Amino acid sequence: MHNLSEQKLIALDHAHVWHPYSAMGSGQPVYPVVSATGVRLTLADGRELIDGMSSWWSAIHGYNHPVMNHALQAQMGNMAHVMFGGLTHPPAVELAQQLVALTPASLQTVFFADSGSVAVEVAMKMAIQYWHAKGQPDKQRFATLRHGYHGDTFAAMSVCDPVAGMHTLFSDVLTRQFFVDTPQCRFGEPCTDAHIASLVKTLETEHPHIAALILEPIVQGAGGMRFYSADYLKKAHALCNEHNVLLIFDEIATGFGRTGKLFACEYANIAPDILCLGKALTGGYLTLAATLTTNNVAETISTGKPGLFMHGPTFMANPLACAAGLASLQLLRDTPWQQNVQRIARSLETGLAPCRAFESVADVRVLGAIGVIELHHPVEMKTLQPRFVDAGVWVRPFGKLIYLMPPFIINDNDLTTLTQAVTSIIADLS
């Protein structure tokens, strides 16, 4: 199969393969990748692209990393998979121990899942089951922020933006949740009473029905790439405590250093009741996610009816994925990731700054290893994507956003190539 010509590969792909957020027969270009090393993707036609996406924000150490490769090869020699029901294994136990050590001190238990969306499903089920065990079964709905994104499965879709999000088609069959205004206090700014008034009103009036507030701390990801005030998080945390509502942080996109802190909640110095992790957890090698919670939540669920937590994925805590997670965390410990993220932030700020002068651009913002150009109008993917490829970079815009989230290992020359390509193409759009 690997001997297929590029043309045959693309033809078979168009005929049989459904890509994310795409239509069969759409003619949307796809680019066959035959190898990846460092920050470069090699296409079937021999072209190399500098990856500005970290494969949807996960490949923080780049590709084909010798430490990651060795960890997986060693684990493969022992065991690729074993069921987690009634069994355990060293990679899962060690990874859980390390996640507990890295995250806020109150988070002491770890539930492994298959993907970020499932980690959110798990968190929401935990919150509902917690209140059921506490004798408050009416608390089974959720408060969340407009312009949020938490995944594509059903419960996760219900807390994604119901108007501007990707799941409006399903609005009539999803659980109706409580949506509050997007924080208008930008990162680094104070949060005023006006900024949080919508959340205050919702929790005051609806808290008997709300199991938890779920949000993406500091950075709203796929719902709009907005950066907002840590002060908002502090006030939201206090409101949840006041109104007897659990707090869930979705750090699937922000976890493991992307914002400049290991976890974005560190900017506010607060801990949630439940924390969702994914994406960069395995350095982009294998799918794995984790939902962490407190002893209080875990013990309440475990001692209430039916006396166990009602969830269990087939590939939960896959040993290969857990080994990749351990290797990725080791790389973070062994490398100056904070300095690298700061260096990337400086380069993104300098390189993307000229875009602020373009008529087509509404905003340019940078936080950690995230650079965002927000346009006034949505991009045309069918024409824009090939232009990035022709410029030798892999950038995947969506809606009005062109953004960069490169691997932490990227060097300054490659960063310059990335930002110059983006700036040049946006200049032409203007």
Low-confidence region ranges: none
Distance between the termini: 43 Å
Secondary structure class reads: alpha/beta
- What is the H/E string? HEEEHHHEHEHEHEEEHEEEHHHEEHEEH
**What is the CATH architecture term of the largest domain?**
3-Layer(aba) Sandwich
CATH class descriptor name of the largest domain: Alpha Beta
Profile the largest sheet. Answer: 7 strands, mixed
- Helix fraction? 25-40%
Strand order of the largest sheet: 4-12-11-10-7-5-6
> Going by CATH, what is the homologous superfamily of the largest domain?
Type I PLP-dependent aspartate aminotransferase-like (Major domain)
- The number of domains: 2
Rg result: 22 Å
Nearest-integer average pLDDT: 96
Strand content: 15-25%
As for the CATH topology of the largest domain, it is: Aspartate Aminotransferase, domain 2
Number of strands: 16
Structural overview:
With 430 residues, the chain is an alpha/beta fold. The protein has 2 domains: 31-64 and 336-429, Aspartate Aminotransferase, domain 1; 69-334, 3-Layer(aba) Sandwich (Aspartate Aminotransferase, domain 2). 37% of the residues lie in helices and 17% in strands. It contains 13 helices and 16 strands. It has a 7-stranded mixed β-sheet, with helices on both faces. A hairpin with a 2-residue loop joins β1 (33-37) and β2. α3 (66-78) packs antiparallel against α10, α7 (193-206) packs parallel to α8 (230-242) and α11 (337-352) runs parallel beside α13. It is globular and about 60 Å long.
Write the layout of secondary structure elements.
Blueprint: H1 6-16, E1 33-37, E2 40-43, E3 48-51, H2 54-57, H3 66-78, H4 90-102, E4 107-113, H5 116-133, E5 141-145, H6 154-158, E6 178-180, H7 193-206, E7 210-215, E8 219-220, E9 226-227, H8 230-242, E10 246-250, E11 274-277, E12 289-294, H9 295-303, H10 319-334, H11 337-352, E13 361-367, E14 370-375, H12 381-390, E15 393-394, E16 401-404, H13 412-429
Parallel strand pairs: 3-15, 5-6, 5-7, 7-10, 10-11
Antiparallel strand pairs: 1-2, 2-3, 4-12, 8-9, 11-12, 13-14, 14-16
Helix pairs in contact: 3-10, 4-10, 5-9, 7-8, 11-13
